[in-house]
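Hey,
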Amino acid sequence: MKFLELKIPPALLMLLFGFLMWLTAQALPQLKVTWPWHEWVARAVFVLAFVLIAAGAYSFRKASTTVDPTRPEKATSVVSNGIYRVSRNPMYLGFLLMLLAFMFKLANPVTALLLPVFVVYMNQFQIKPEERALLRLFGKSYAAYQNQVRRWI
């Protein structure tokens, strides 16, 4: 299934999964569970997600390297400062948290079943191919970074 590697931009994939979550919630409305705080949790998680994505994009722009996730071979440097000291993929973590926020917004716990599917897809078809490309480009410096910082958190 190599044909899926680096093909769907992660932001588009997040929207696709959000749509699938919405469809699931529409198909199973009897599973909706509202809590007095679910809207607040959704907002708080969304803000955290937005901050992670913005911090990741800012670090890439500051390093003058590409933010295009479908072309990792265009990277000009290993970005290991800022938010990248905590996560190798803060923008992808932000996308996952946006989906989690949407799950709270939908108030349908069954939609959470799509979250691990998103992570598996991202690991297999986005992150691992990116890591291979970055290892080819930067060799030992990227390998050292991989050993110091976890993939997600």
